[in-house]
C-alpha cells in the first residue's frame, strides 16, 4: 500500500460526499457514467455520505433526467453553450470550481480519453492527487480510508493506493470494469447551474467530432466479442472473425499483437493498455492469455478459447476450451450456428 502526499494544510473534515463526474456525448449518457454511479453509491453508503453527480453540456435535459433515476442524491447540471462539445479548458474550470465550492471527499471520473485529459488538470488546480486507471475502489472497514486499486508493474501486481492527507481523493476508473447502476424508484434532486464561462476561458477549441463509422457497437457495450490474437496471422484472418461476430451479432476485438502488427485498429485492443470489457460471451481465437490481455477480459461472463496449443494459459482460464486450428474451427462454428437459425 502506497501513501501519496500532495497537500497537508487542508481542513479534511470540511470535505464530505462522493462525486461522480458524468460523461455524455451529444446528450447520450455513456456506459461509464452508470458504472461510476453504481460504484459511487456503494462508496457513499459505506462513508454514510451523499452521492453527487456532475454533468456538463448544453440542452441535455433528457440525459440529466435519465441520470436522475439511478440513485444519486443530487445532480449538478452545468449548462452552457460553451459546454456543447468537450473542451479541456471549460471542463477543467467548471469541475474545479464545483470542487472548491462543494468540497466532495471523493471524486471519480471515467478513465476515457476525456477523463484522462482533464482529471489531472483539475487535480493540479485544486491541489490534490489523482490515482489513474483504477480497476477497484473500496472503503476500508476498519479506518474508513478510501482504497484505490490499479494494476502496476506491467499488470503483474495490483497496487492499492491511499491518499490520507489530500482532499478530495480523486481517481479515474477504467470503463467496463464496474457493473452499471440499476434504476431506483426515487428521483435525484437536480440543480441546474449556468457557469460563468467566456470564450477567453477556452484556449483549445474542439472544431468537430468525427465518429468512427466502422464501430457499430463499442467494445464496452457489446454482449458478444470475438477476439483475435497472433494466431489469426494477418489482416485477412480477421475477416473470418468478423464473419463469426456477424453470425452471433457481436463485435471483433483483439490482443495487442494484431494491433502492433497493423492488422486491426487500436480501438479494438483489449487488455492492460487497451480496453476493459465484460461481455456475456468472449471468444478468444489464437490468443495465448498473457496477464496483460486477461486483465482486460477476465470478468467476461462466459469465455471460449480456440487454440492449437492445449497448454496455452487461456485454455485453463476459459469456461470452454476448444483445441484446434481456428481456421478449421471457426468455419464449422459458423455453419453450425447458421444451420440452427
Ligand atoms: P501470443 O502470446 O503469441 O499467442 C498466440 C496464440 O495463438 C498461441 O497460444 C498459439 O498457440 C495460438 N495459435 C497460433 N496459431 C493458431 C491457429 N491457427 N489456431 C488456433 N490458435 C493458434 N496484450 C494485450 O493483448 N493487450 C494489452 O493491452 C497489452 N498490454 C501490454 C502492456 C505491457 C506493458 C506489456 C509489456 C505487454 C502488453 N501486452 C498486451 C502484450 C502481452 O504481454 C502479450 O504479448 C500479448 O497479449 C500476446 O498476444 P497473443 O495472445 O495474441 O499472442
Automatic annotation (TrEMBL):
Enumerate the residues binding FAD.
230, 255-256, 269-273, 286-293, 307
GO biological process terms, alphabetically, are: fatty acid beta-oxidation using acyl-CoA dehydrogenase
Query: What Pfam families does its record include?
Result: ETF (PF01012), ETF_alpha (PF00766)
Give the co-factor note. Answer: Binds 1 FAD per dimer.
- List the keywords (alphabetical): Electron transport, FAD, Flavoprotein, Transport
- Which cofactors are named for this entry? FAD
What residue stretches are annotated with the Electron transfer flavoprotein alpha/beta-subunit N-terminal domain? Answer: 17-206
Output the InterPro entries linked to this UniProt entry: DHS-like_NAD/FAD-binding_dom, ETF_a/b_N, ETF_a/FixB, ETF_alpha_N, ETF_asu_C, ETF_asu_C_CS, Rossmann-like_a/b/a_fold
GO MF terms here are: electron transfer activity; flavin adenine dinucleotide binding
Has keyword Electron transport?
yes
Recorded family membership: Belongs to the ETF alpha-subunit/FixB family.
What name does UniProt use for this protein?
Answer: Electron transfer flavoprotein subunit alpha
Give the organism, scientific name: Vallitalea longa
Gene label: etfA1
